[in-house]
């Protein structure tokens, strides 16, 4: 299942784009691939022609996206023999991107994405409790433990993302898995801000371990309730942070939950 999930994650992150604002969409896809560890530090990207074809964008759009990533320090381009574009993972990547995303997101969009994340996680947990294999459950427990032991927010955010993707995979639903991966682009980067607190990292790992235990015991309703409560608590934490960091003109409105 993990090999299938890895393939699906790549398929989603490097699949054709069908949304406007394609330069920023390419940037977000590649940034998310780095954050999830799909693209490791030092990895060489495909050629510009190949990558543009994968995303179904014009070569100029792809070059603009790579230029933006170079400015962020995420991509390094080398010329000559053995040249190409290579991944770099600056320590500031996750927090800087999370802060910018949270501050710029309008309240209705933040609330809608928070609701959708809770819905996808809840449905995944409920179905996983009915369908997960022993291997799936063991993997979920391992990811929860890794989150609790994470030493920084970037690592914690990565294990949180992998847990939710693995939970959807354990539900044996390709659609839920695809949505769980999509949420890593649109919402999950902001979790780096929540996981800056070591206590929250430990609490998050403990509560995800409880979800894994519910899945193991086949307690579908409880699994849904626990993961939904956790995602709702996370949204409230982010909402409080957002009220202090919202960009001028976005307004505070009625925050999520």
TrEMBL record:
Keywords on this record? Answer: DNA-binding, Transcription, Transcription regulation
The name on file for this protein is Transcriptional regulator, GntR family
Q: List residues of the HTH gntR-type domain.
A: 20-90
Q: Which organism is it from?
A: Geodermatophilus nigrescens
Entry keyword annotation includes DNA-binding: yes
Q: Which Pfam families match?
A: FCD, GntR
Q: Where is this region: Disordered?
A: 237-257
* Lineage top rank: taxon: Bacteria
Query: PROSITE patterns under this entry?
Result: HTH_GNTR
User: Which InterPro entries would you find in this protein's record?
Assistant: GntR_C, TF_FadR/GntR_C, Tscrpt_reg_HTH_GntR, WH-like_DNA-bd_sf, WH_DNA-bd_sf
- GO MF, any single term: DNA-binding transcription factor activity
| Gene3D superfamilies associated with the record | GntR ligand-binding domain-like, Winged helix-like DNA-binding domain superfamily/Winged helix DNA-binding domain
